[in-house]
Amino acid sequence: MTAQDWILLGVFIVVLIATAMPLGWYMARVYGNGKAPGDRVFRPIENGIYRICGVDPSGEQRWTTYAYSVLGFSVVSFLAVYAIQRLQGSLPLNPLHLVGVVPHLAFNTAVSFMTNTNWQSYAGETTMSHLTQMTALTVQQFLSAAAGMAVMAAFIRGLARQRVSTLGNFWVDLVRTTIRILLPLSIVVAVALMSQGVVQNFVGHKPVVTVEGAKQELAQGPVASMVAIKQLGTNGGGFFNVNSAHPYENSTPLNNFIEMWCILVIPFGIAFMYGRMIGDKRQGRAVFLIMFVVWLGFSLAAMHLETSGNPRLAKVGASQTVTASQAGGNMEGKEVRFGPGESALWAVSTTGTSNGSVNSMHDSMTPLGGGIALTHIKLGEMTPGGVGVGLNGLLVFIILSVFISGLMVGRTPEYLGKKIQAAEMKLVVLYILAMPAAMLIFAAAAVLLKGALASLNNPGPHGLSEILYAYASAANNNGSAFGGLNAATPWYDTTLGIAMLVGRFFLIIPTLAIAGSLGAKQQVPSSEGTFPTHTPLFIGLVLGMILIVAGLTFFPALALGPIVEHLSL
């Protein structure tokens, strides 16, 4: 790593923490029952939405009703996105006169954006009209993120409350998240991105003449508004095929810095929000440290590997050192304006959340560098995780750690004064097993089917990594692609869509069930025998639990993919 990489990382961490803490305080007020900043501006808008939709904002829901609301809203979202794609050829704001999207791709895309995955088996600028990009995809980037944050708020209420049967109101949480958090931040970020050259217009393709005199058409459209929420909502679905590697989405190093900040600020801010909502800031700091330690460790490892270069190129005499004329390191698949260090930092940040946007091609990273990105996804995307769902996953692992530590010392496990019993642990096990099952079963089937293998551009261990990455990305609702895999086929569109559904709803429903179970319990006063859950010892226990579960589940697959490829260099 160069001095520039260290300075970048240091400044980024300072800015991130300095902004995440006050954002966490603000979000805690938004989801609380008292007054919140901006009430005079936002409350009339919210009340108008409630009246139009027939929602009683004072009525709270049991966890089952909350879950039905999430599922019903998701079904309507899926149908709307699917219909707009299929009918786009007959709808306005279609300057390139694009036809309707084929059924299997429309299904995959509708599921993808409804589940906050934003996996894209298409080139946006040549497949989707401006109307589809704005009213179907960008709108879902707001709403799917807001739904995830709403479930998170309900989970926290289940931990904080006692002897209650309700967790809040999904429709209120959805509206407040969108109106008070995501929309204001997106407006500010979109303006900042436009100042850096990100385009925002309704033009189709703009004809230009190159320096050599050749004619070329440059894709245009409402890009900045989509990029802002794709990052803030940890969505990742870009306007262009190459996502944030495209200069119209990510134009300058400052632009790149802003977008990386957008990816991480809400997930890290949620940790501080959590401490305030449960009335114990120490718990929030413990959650933040667990997230931060893993993210920082993976970031340093990936940045070191990518800036060190490819050993095979070094053997044949290719220079990968930093000079005045070259960035050095492994530059394959990376933009010169970012370099290997900044690209690796982005790769770790996007795979540690459910974001999925890319500013470089992960397929071209070194075997171990790409393996780090793949491993980070497989941890379950809770370090720091996507908006809302990351905290949910981490709290599930905290409950698992509390339960195992309680068994080790012969005490009834407790977290925040709530006893953790068999009912909660069954739901925890379901939560932990759902994603690996969806990922590994479909990946195993893909490597056995000739039709699925025909989509690979690379044989051997690297091809296996490409398949594993695709299903890990789908099952974790990440959406980034390793590359080198043609996923625009009926097999991959269908199976990846199913994996996305499993990764979304087989996690959300157990989360709400755990919240409902814990919310109905009486808090037990702490005593000398209570295991503290904010100490360095407990933080280390949770970190170890995450790594052990991930290692036991995924190490054989990783050994056959990126590890074997690295050893073959």
Number of domains: 1
Low-confidence stretches: none
**CA-based shape:** globular
- Level of helix content? 55-70%
Number of helices: 19
**How many individual β-strands?**
4
Main sheet properties: 2 strands, antiparallel
Q: Averaging pLDDT over every residue, what do you get?
A: 92
Which terms summarize this structure?
569 residues; mainly alpha; two-stranded antiparallel ribbon; 19 helices; 4 strands; 64% helix
Short note summarizing the structure:
The protein has 569 residues and is an all-alpha fold.
Describe the protein:
This protein is mostly helical and 569 residues long. The protein has one domain (3-315, 326-567). It contains 19 helices and four strands. The protein has a two-stranded antiparallel ribbon. It has a two-stranded antiparallel sheet with strand order 3-4. Helix 1 packs across helix 9 (253-277). The longest helix is centred in the last third of the chain and has 32 residues, at 536-567.
